[in-house]
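User: I've been trying to design a sequence by hand for this structure and keep getting stuck. Would you show me what you'd pick, starting by listing the structure so we're on the same page?

Assistant: Good idea, let's start from the same input. This is the structure you sent:
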């Protein structure tokens, strides 16, 4: 399980996504994607990333109208690159307007991705 110092490093690496816009989302293991708002993961398209914070062991992306929350659990990892391919353990791929893609892969499929409309602070 990623510990807090590892999540802080990951947050710094992902900070290049601030002010970038999501262009597409591919979900390959739907159980991991927990949508608490009506619609599908396609509602993330054209959402701009405003901030990225670590809250406990969660990574929280503040988008235009939503919060995208990652809980990596035991074996979840986020991989940032310009050319990301689907592998056996890929759960989801998020592509951005700058050409960067973020691949969420998880060997044990225990990680979670939450999508919320309400403020994250009120949920804790």
């Amino acid at each position: 399980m990623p510990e807090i110092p590892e999540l802080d490093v990951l947050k710094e690496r992902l900070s290049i996504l601030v002010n970038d816009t999501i262009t597409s989302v591919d979900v390959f293991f739907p159980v991991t994607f927990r949508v608490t708002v009506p619609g599908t993961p396609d509602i993330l398209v054209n959402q701009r990333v405003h901030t990225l914070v670590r809250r406990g062991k969660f990574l929280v992306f503040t988008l235009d109208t939503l919060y995208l929350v990652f809980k990596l659990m035991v074996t979840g990892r986020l991989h940032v690159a310009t050319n990301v391919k689907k592998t056996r353990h890929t759960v989801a791929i998020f592509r951005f307007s700058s050409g960067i893609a973020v691949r969420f892969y998880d060997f044990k499929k225990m990680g979670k991705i939450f999508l919320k409309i309400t403020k994250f602070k009120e949920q804790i």
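That's my pick for every position. To get oriented when you compare it with your attempt: The first strand starts at residue 22 and ends at 27. Residues 4-117 form a domain with the N-terminal domain of MutM-like DNA repair proteins fold (CATH 3.20.190.10).
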